């Protein structure tokens, strides 16, 4: 994982949002809202030639905002330690652990029950 690249195709999250590295949360939010409105895929749906580019840019903007607006993720990103793929693995591990606990908790006393979410 390249700190400057993230998974957004080669440009750092700060440049995706067009902000400085010392930007405040308010600056990040303002830049995000402006760019999200500009590149929202629904706005470009009538023009198929640019719809794909708009979708790609919107996803980059979303990813950059999700990292830079969260102080712990931003600190890790600034230190070059943030990996968005690792975060997805962590979510899967937590879900699997919760499912495991629910399943075996219900099997105590030889009563079987299943929870569906």
Structure description:
With 117 residues, this protein is mostly helical. The protein folds into two domains: 1-82, Orthogonal Bundle (Helix Hairpins), CATH 1.10.287.110; 84-117. The protein is 62% helix and 0% strand. It has helices at residues 13-17, 25-39, 48-68, 71-78, 84-106. Helix 2 (25-39) runs antiparallel to helix 3. It is globular, with a radius of gyration of 20 Å. The model is unreliable at 1-10 (pLDDT under 50). This is J domain-containing protein. It comes from Glycine max (Soybean). Residues 12-81 form the J domain. InterPro entries: DnaJ_domain, DnaJ_domain_CS, J_dom_sf. It holds the Pfam family DnaJ.
Labels describing this entry:
5 helices, DnaJ_domain, 2 domains, globular, Helix Hairpins, 117 residues
List the SSEs and their pairings.
Layout: H1 13-17, H2 25-39, H3 48-68, H4 71-78, H5 84-106
Helix pairs in contact: 2-3
Domain J: 12-81
Protein name: J domain-containing protein
InterPro entries: DnaJ_domain, DnaJ_domain_CS, J_dom_sf
Total helices: the number is 5
Low-confidence stretches: 1-10
Q: Give the N-terminus to C-terminus distance in angstroms.
A: 33 Å
Cα gyration radius (Å)? 20 Å
Which secondary-structure class do the elements indicate?
mainly alpha
Secondary-structure element string: HHHHH
The total strand number stands at 0
Task: Write down the CATH class of the largest domain.
Answer: Mainly Alpha
How much helical structure, as a percent, in the residues?
A: 55-70%
- CATH architecture assignment of the largest domain: Orthogonal Bundle
CATH topology of the largest domain: Helix Hairpins
> Into how many domains do the coordinates divide?
2
SS strand fraction: under 5%
Biggest sheet: strands, sense, closure? none
Q: What's the CATH H-level homologous superfamily of the largest domain? A: DnaJ domain
Mean residue pLDDT: 78
The shape is globular
